[in-house]
Amino acid sequence: MNIFTKIILLGLLISPIYATTPYEANTEDGISGFSETIPSEAESDLTAPFLDLFATTQWDLFMREFEMKMKIGICCMPNNPLTCAIGFKAKMIEPIGYMETTNIPLYFIFADIDLGGDPTKGNSPFNQSENSAEVRTVATDAHFIYVPIMGMIFEKSLKFVCFHQGDLSFPYMSEFDPTWKQDVYYGKMILHMLQMFSPNSLLSTIFDCIATETVNSIRGGQAGDMEFREGMEAAGEQESLLNEPNQSDQSGAAPESDMLGDIASSTIEKMDLIRDTMYFVSGCSGFSPVGGYVNGEDALLDSTLIFHGIMGLMHGASAISPKPFLYKQTNMTTDSTAFPESSPARGTLDTMCMYKDYALPIPSQYLLQLAYPTVGSAKEVGAAGSTVSTAKGRPGSKGGAFTVWVRRDYYAFAYFCTEEDK
Amino acid sequence: MQKKLIIKILLIVSSILTLNAETLEEYSALSIKETKPGNYLDFGVYGKEYSIEENDFQKELMEGIKKFNLNEENLKKKIKQLVRKSAYKTTELPLCKKDIHYSPEIDYAPERTEEIRNPEGRLIYKKGVKERIPLKLGISYDICFIDGRNNIVAINQIEYYKKQGDCLFLVANKNVLGLRKKYPDEQIFPTSPAQEQRFGIECYPAKVHLVNDTRELFYNAYDKFKN
What we know:
The complex is a heterodimer. Chain A is an alpha+beta fold. Chain A is 22% helix and 17% strand. Chain A contains 9 helices and 9 strands. In chain A, the strands form 2 sheets. In chain A, strands 1, 2, 5, 6, 7, 8 and 9 form a 7-stranded antiparallel sheet that branches. A two-stranded antiparallel sheet of chain A has the order 3-4. In chain A, helix 6 packs antiparallel against helix 8 (262-277). Chain B has a 6-stranded mixed sheet with strand order 2-10-9-5-6-8, covered by helices on one side. A two-stranded antiparallel sheet of chain B has the order 1-7. Chain B has a two-stranded antiparallel sheet with strand order 3-4. In chain B, 38% of the residues lie in helices and 20% in strands. Chain B is elongated. By secondary structure, chain B is α+β, with helices and mostly antiparallel strands. Classes of the chains: A alpha+beta, B alpha+beta. Chains A and B meet through helix 1, strand 6, helix 5 and helix 8 of A and helix 1, helix 2, helix 3, strand 3 and helix 5 of B.
């Protein structure tokens, strides 16, 4: 070994390079990924999520997912340059209503109002017992209640956010849907969902489950730190579920901008494409329930599955209405190279300027947040989690209700929000 | 001489590396400290300050929710109204003037006006294709379209079709909740244009008999049920 080599080695010994200790996110509180705790046996005082909006809605989800970038886009109506406007690429999420399932016809869990309906022929009977392990509550009816809460609150301000507008309405009630629990009639009325049921599609359930759980795990860290609450406060108290903006800072958690790096975003995009391609499967919950048939073993799990079925009806067509109620308003889950140039469906790919009709359900566009019988954090559609056993002590004898959150990708300030804007 | 110069250079380089390593360590420690809000350093204010004109989002949200003024009685009224709206559907189709029976024909679903593709671009449903979904062998299904504008006539229609076998009743111009109380064992639902179009109904009352992949239409004169 010559003198030069010795000096270099000596230099390396003298100049140790201390590896930077990687910053470990505080997982005790703050953004730690999805977590569940089984609540205590105490009965919940929560009975009507809509009557206690503040305590039952995960408001911080809006702030966490709202994002605006300095990327400019232009929106114009075809052949009408006067309608052109410049906007900034943005994304947001908002609650648009409730999805509830109940074993009491015409009982509206979201407002705790029972109109005393009679069961229609064909609905399954149900058994209940105090032992939650023996609860077999078959959800016989389902409702989708449209309540654009944020549009109602911020009617005049925050117009650039483009919240859904309108008044309370019931776009779907299974009590008046003749295809509900009528599989023969369902097959005659709604064809495209049935065509995907084949032995090959059974394999799809595995992929969809993995994709959904992956997305839920990545995004779950951003969905807030709500947990199933042990003994909800009485409806009179306004316990805020809205975290103060500086709370996560004080806990020492990593800044939010570090949570979703490029790799995570790319993973989410790929997983969401799988989820939306397998539109006939609801993640780990199984096949989309044709005509509302679920196995009836877990009321809450059945509720999430039923939502998937109803989402399909409201995106496509149902016996009740040929006109869709839900639209494609996210832009991230289509493979534009696969659509032929001549295909009219290509026009549905880009929804940055306006929402578009899309006949198939889009699981990646929605989140379900448990609101009754207890309150939980928002989850991706099809993600495992909300079951009767996790709401132990509150078996949900009357059913279950979820707040439905919907995402939107759009050009803020240029988006054609309403029909009048077009 | 050259060797001495090279040695000096190497010593300088190694000392720089050593210095940087220490600095790096200090920097790392400082970075970790700096990420904790309690250790933030206040460097004062530079430049002009601008006040935030927008209201705090949380406060605006809380005030907005309070303004909702959710009165339970009003809410119940509203919900009843919405339920009534769902339970009562009208039709633009006329009343049938005579009995007509059409022989069985292939039951095609209405042609799709737009194609449906999944996000991968795979064609799920082709535009303009006539689709037929046969029932399983041995199964038949009846759908009875009833006009309920007159209560007695509506009951007569239901009784008439009940005698012919099980039927899915789709009712126009009447709130189905009342009929359900009277006929708890029957499947009674409100009608809709989608269902009328699906089976090609032209007037009320009508019955659609589905067997295999065929449908058979029966129209009955409305006046027949007035007696």
